[in-house]
């Protein structure tokens, strides 16, 4: 971190000292004691422009207060069958940790369908995983490794990627924009594996639309990516779809403890039990069923450009080759912002 960076962080910190008390309280849940690293993330997201970073951070804190984000880990998705359906159609899980201590999140881009619940449920689930990552997983990793760990690694599995998922673009851009505005710079590296031809072709036109700092984080690996990923993590931390060449992803695994997407996986069991316990501690009233409604942002300009490009490319391939019946390239948009 250079002198200019240190000065920018100092100035932003001074500005944050003057925000109202309610925002300071939710800011505690954002930085978890790692104030410098948090200020640096927001500055990076606004190209080190202090004024813009300050506005972004204050807007984020107001969003958290207005939507009771600090309470999101006290609002379980019940009954459990609804949550299981979400886990079967919004494929994400924690497979382990890199050798540097960064959590490794696996995301089944190609096989996620987002068709088992309402948009509000999927947004609620996504924010809960974000909050659990930032308030439980990362602080625990920081304590274990004796240094600040405030980012993660993501492995995106493109198995099953097909042309016909334009209907999912709206949801994925909502999730993407929530992360852009409120959880910036949380991913250290994106590894993309099991890449089909359709992704390779569209990637050539989408890549230039991404900001440079995002492009630098993305590595498209050959096959399942196993050999490359073993350079930064142990075999036990590999996502299940990377453990052997040609294995691909699988939404329904016979062993839920190995399938990091499954509700039966230890990560999701711990997450779900944590939320239920917090709900009981917070209120003596019966747990309310139904999704949590969060104000949904307008798509960011970059996201809109990417969406338009993806739509054009998918239509181009669809007109030439016919549409598939599965999920689509549009899912990758949201995955690159989680």
From TrEMBL:
Show the SUPFAM superfamilies listed in the entry: CRAL/TRIO domain, CRAL/TRIO N-terminal domain
Disordered: region residues: 317-338
Q: Which SMART domains match?
A: CRAL_TRIO_N, SEC14
Q: Which CDD domains match?
A: SEC14
- Write down a Pfam family by its short name: CRAL_TRIO_N
Instruction: Identify the residues that the record assigns to the CRAL-TRIO domain, covering every copy.
Output: 79-239
| Record's compositionally biased regions (Low complexity) | 328-338
What InterPro entries would the database entry show?
A: CRAL-TRIO_dom, CRAL-TRIO_dom_sf, CRAL/TRIO_N_dom, CRAL/TRIO_N_dom_sf
PANTHER family from the xrefs? CRAL-TRIO DOMAIN-CONTAINING PROTEIN (PTHR46226), SEC14P-LIKE PHOSPHATIDYLINOSITOL TRANSFER FAMILY PROTEIN (PTHR46226:SF6)
Protein's UniProt name: Phosphatidylinositol/phosphatidylcholine transfer protein SFH1-like isoform X1
Q: What is the lineage of its organism?
A: Eukaryota, Viridiplantae, Streptophyta, Embryophyta, Tracheophyta
Q: Which gene encodes it?
A: LOC111434301
């Amino acid at each position: 971190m250079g002198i200019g960076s240190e000065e920018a962080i100092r100035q932003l910190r001074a500005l944050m000292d003057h925000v109202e008390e309610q925002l300071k309280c939710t800011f505690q849940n954002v930085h978890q004691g790692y104030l410098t690293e948090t200020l640096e993330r927001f500055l990076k997201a606004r190209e080190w422009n202090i004024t813009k970073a300050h506005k972004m951070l204050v807007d984020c804190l107001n969003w958290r207060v207005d939507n009771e984000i600090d309470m999101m880990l006290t609002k379980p998705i019940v009954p459990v069958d609804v949550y299981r359906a979400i886990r079967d159609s919004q494929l994400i899980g924690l497979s382990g940790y890199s050798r540097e201590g960064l959590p490794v999140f696996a995301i089944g881009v190609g096989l996620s369908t987002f068709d088992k619940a309402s948009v509000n449920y999927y947004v609620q689930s996504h924010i809960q995983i974000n909050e659990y990552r930032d308030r439980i997983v990362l602080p625990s990793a920081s304590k274990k490794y004796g240094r600040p760990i405030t980012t993660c690694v993501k492995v995106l599995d493109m198995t099953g990627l097909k042309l016909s998922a334009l209907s999912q673009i709206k949801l994925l851009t909502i999730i993407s924009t929530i992360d852009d505005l409120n959880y910036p710079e949380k991913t250290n590296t994106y590894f993309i594996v099991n890449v089909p031809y359709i992704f390779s072709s569209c990637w050539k036109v989408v890549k230039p639309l991404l900001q440079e700092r995002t492009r630098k984080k993305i590595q498209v690996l050959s096959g399942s990516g196993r050999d490359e990923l073993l350079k930064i993590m142990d075999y036990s931390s590999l996502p299940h779809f990377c453990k052997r060449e040609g294995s691909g992803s699988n939404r329904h695994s016979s062993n839920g403890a190995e399938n990091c997407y499954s509700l039966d996986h230890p990560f999701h069991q711990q997450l779900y039990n944590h939320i239920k316990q917090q709900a009981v501690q917070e209120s003596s009233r019966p747990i309310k069923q139904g999704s949590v409604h969060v104000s949904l942002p307008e798509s960011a300009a970059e996201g809109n450009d990417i969406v338009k490009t993806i739509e054009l490319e998918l239509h181009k391939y669809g007109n030439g080759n016919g549409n598939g019946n599965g999920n689509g390239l549009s899912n990758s948009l949201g995955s690159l912002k989680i």
